[in-house]
């Protein structure tokens, strides 16, 4: 019978005192700080299977039979064969150039989930525009994108020069929203990617960053200095005040905020376009063409020609994109 096993970490110098083994595929092994996510989600560090203790070093803390264990998208759903504390989820995300994994239960998820229902009413911004729905462009590189299933939208996937979700009027990208999980936000602050992203977003007529968590969770981080992250976010907002960073508590609320923001931006763009058509000599802010940025393959080829070492596959480092833009004299394109 398949089992979830928690053992004590034999490494006395590790701050993660337990090993979690899950029988998925050849097995998944993580270092973690607790035996169950009772009050908060537990950070899990992916470990090699050969780190599992052998012989006298193996001290089993808990061994529980599984009803089910299945991977769904970026998460592994784990259901234990016991009456209480039986459901949990191993959630994968990306941060600081490596996999970051969190172990959460329905209780810890509920603590971060406000007791509200997102509305499905038509956005007031579209009243009088004659549009029954809006087309939202989803960046081709976006993993696990928003679907906007309960809203009046249709989505298309294309490469965006900035952000993850945008609306287009004619040939102009009029607004874009960059989506961030909290681990991704913190890692992008630390490695400078958020600074580049805000610079690119500020070139658009309207843009924003939406975070799928609460502002208070910035101060609950253990592996970074919360004050340093808060100071960096404040400095970035002062430098680029036209690109707000919005904390939307949860992924569904972040999706709802993104939809409402893009709908309002499209209505504003239609008004700007109408003013430009009616008033001779009037100028508008709709000046950024919807031109796709360079592909990763193009930048990789340029980097190799310039003698810069880059991987054969996957995303390129932010500094490689920065060097490419500096060489080409542009601030658009890239991740």
TrEMBL record:
Domain ERCC4 residues, every copy: 135-215
- DNA-binding as a keyword of this entry, yes or no, is yes
Which keywords describe this protein according to UniProt? DNA-binding
Q: Name one Pfam family in it.
A: Lsr2_DNA-bd
Task: List the SUPFAM superfamilies.
Answer: Restriction endonuclease-like (SSF52980)
Q: What is this protein called?
A: ERCC4 domain-containing protein
| Source organism (scientific name) | Actinomycetospora chibensis
